[in-house]
Amino acid sequence: MAAVNEELWAGPEEFPSDPAVASLVDLMALVRRSVAMRHWERDHLPIHASQLGFELFMTLPQLFTAGSRDRTGLLKQLYLMLPYSEKGVRLHLRRLEMTGWITVCKTGRDTRSTQVELSGEYWRLLGVYAAHCQLIEREA
Predict the structure, then answer these.
(1) Which residues contact 106 (CB under 8 A, 6 or more apart)?
(2) Which fold has domain 48-140?
């Protein structure tokens, strides 16, 4: 077993000849990339160090790019899409609104109809995040 461990911690350019050990080396590289990404996400994204916050942050742009110009049904879609309580989603949305990442406003006479808009800073941060993901992938 000691020989396997020594081969595992060899540099990524020194792949061992045993396929099982090579797959472990690949797995360890994936783990290092994942940990680096999670640290960056925690430090830079407005997710409040939670999985719900992360999923909400990543789901909002998906809804905006789905082709619908009418954003009034967006909150209902979020509540249905995310596997979290409506109360939890509302809490995170409120945090995003209070910190300027999104704008939430009532539309029309029906106060139940709400529209959500993402700030320019939100879209910019998504671009930074994408660039960072590519950088982590290249460094692996």
Answers:
(1) 113, 114, 115
(2) Arc Repressor Mutant, subunit A (1.10.10)
Dist. CA 130–CA 21, nearest whole Å: 31
What is the separation, in whole angstroms, between the first and last Cα of the chain? 25
Threshold 0.85, pTM exceeds:
no
pLDDT digits (tens, 9 = 90+) for 73-117: 677 888 888 999 999 999 999 999 999 999 887 776 766 667 788
CATH 1.10.10.10 positions along the chain are 48-140
Both tokens of 6, joined, read 């020594």
Give CB contacts under 8 A, 24+ apart, made by 94-99. Answer: 95/46, 95/48, 95/53, 96/46, 96/56, 96/57, 99/46
Sheet strands (E) in 1-140: 102-106, 114-118
Query: What is d(CA 23, CA 20) in angstroms, rounded to the nearest whole number?
Result: 5
- The whole-number pLDDT of residue 63 equals 80
* Alpha carbons 81 and 84: distance in angstroms, whole number: 9
